[in-house]
Design goal:
Blueprint lengths: L6 H9 L33 E3 L2 E3 L12 E3 L2 E3 L12 E3 L2 E3 L17 E3 L17 E3 L11 E3 L11 H4 L2 E3 L13
Parallel strand pairs: 1-3, 2-4, 3-5, 4-6, 6-7, 7-8, 9-10
Length: 183
């Protein structure tokens, strides 16, 4: 496996693709990141954004791209293998056949998303919010769950080992109903 690229090297690599869009940069040329994790309704986060869009057969492997914003989108067969996505917003999305092996998803907001045939083996989900999400036929072997939020009675709990369950915090939505989840 290739080593994960630094933030600067990740930005440089993403700027070299064929897209007309360029990664946001500060006046000195360094990568521009938002000062806090993205939230819905806040435009211009300063990192990767996808809203009501689709993406198939993409490769975001081995990158450092914290504080991304993916909402109400469909991602199919996109590889985030060994990618650092700390504090990203991955809500109200459908992820199908995506690979998050050894990815860092710490403090990510992943509520109300549908994950089908995705691989999370050895991923770090410390502090992630998974409330209202559905994990269908996903692999979670060796994934880290510490202070990870899950709704009481969630079917995800049946898929976890006893050691993984020990890191789960059962918590209701609290003002953020998940009635609008798209599965």
């Amino acid at each position: 496996m290739k080593p994960r690229l630094s933030l600067n090297d990740s930005w440089d690599l993403l700027d070299r693709d064929d897209s007309d869009e360029r990664m946001p940069r500060n006046p000195d040329g360094s990568p521009k990141l938002p000062t806090k994790p993205p939230q819905a309704g806040t435009p211009g986060f300063g990192s990767i954004e996808m809203y009501k869009n689709g993406w198939e057969d993409g490769d975001m492997s081995n990158l450092t791209v914290p504080r991304c914003f993916f909402a109400r989108s469909l991602l199919e067969r996109v590889s985030f293998l060994n990618t650092e996505l700390t504090e990203s917003w991955l809500c109200w999305d459908n992820f199908e056949g995506c690979d998050f092996w050894k990815s860092v998803l710490t403090r990510c907001d992943m509520r109300c998303s549908y994950w089908k045939n995705c691989r999370f083996d050895k991923a770090d989900l410390t502090g992630a919010d998974l409330r209202g999400s559905n994990f269908e036929n996903c692999t979670l072997e060796g994934a880290t769950f510490k202070d990870t939020l899950v709704l009481p009675g969630d079917v995800l709990l049946a898929q976890l080992s006893e050691a993984q369950k020990a890191g789960i915090v059962l918590k209701r939505q609290g003002g953020q109903p998940h009635d609008g989840c798209i599965y």
